[in-house]
Amino acid sequence: MTQLAGRTAFVTGGANGLGLGLARALLAEGCKVAIADVREDSIEAALKLLENQHVMGVPLDVASRESFAQAADRVEAELGPVSLLFNNAGVNLFQTIDDSSYDDWDWLLGVNLHGVINGVTTFVPRMKERGLGGHVCNTASMAAFLCNGAPGIYNTTKFAVRGLSESLRYSLAAHGIGVSMLCPGLVKSQIYASDAIRPEALKAGAKEVNTEFVSNLEKLHQAGMEPEVIAARTLEAIQENRFYIFSHPEFQDELAEVFDEVLADFREYPEDPGLADRLQIEAGRRASYRKAREAANAL
């Protein structure tokens, strides 16, 4: 996609951090932009910053399918058909999987994974029906490739967004709709304060907020990359139809190291009785996968 001007973009988590950076960059490209966010006070503040431009704010809990559909109808009635979708909203819980409750899982899965699913399921059928092309950009993270003991649930959601995004890229290529996955590292954002927007209904089993830990996280995130820098790199990648958007080049060596460790775990085994038949089956799958990648890359 080389032409962004005149299109309508929908950005979740759009009133703060990276989402707000994306909104600004899209407006500068001549897009009409809807910023959707669960924080209504942040929406009001963002709209003041972006006044006198083609922008509107929409309160939205991305975990709610019904709210997503209502927001989509409202935005398209005011700004026109959405053909640029940025599933960017995310929250984090900085703890290990074995130290987490069911409500912890439901909260992070609801925002980080189901929020993406809801965005795709709401808007992609409309894009396909209109036949005007478009682009979907899902914000994952370097946590979609690199993980430690914590934040375990966050890693799980971002690995899932990675698989969702790649599969979606191949299925939408035939409709002229591109798909990208943004994988930032440390961002100057407010994700360290995710507990402040945790729903009351999902607080059972939640640990008491460690204010000192949160304060230290805030200091770390203040050293993060500026949202405007990431946004510029994201739009450049979308216009070049790149799938992986690695905004933070400092991760390249580490990712190569991890991939080398993955490949090193393969072993040479004696040929088993079913190998010849499997190779024949896999040859067809490989050819299909290669064809899908080529078609998606050719948009």
Automatic annotation (TrEMBL):
Pfam families per the UniProt record, alphabetical: adh_short (PF00106)
Keyword vocabulary terms for this entry: NADP, Oxidoreductase
Xref: InterPro entries: NAD(P)-bd_dom_sf, SDR_fam
Keyword NADP: yes
Lineage: superkingdom: Bacteria
Protein family: Belongs to the short-chain dehydrogenases/reductases (SDR) family.
Name of the molecule in the record: SDR family NAD(P)-dependent oxidoreductase
Organism: Novosphingobium decolorationis
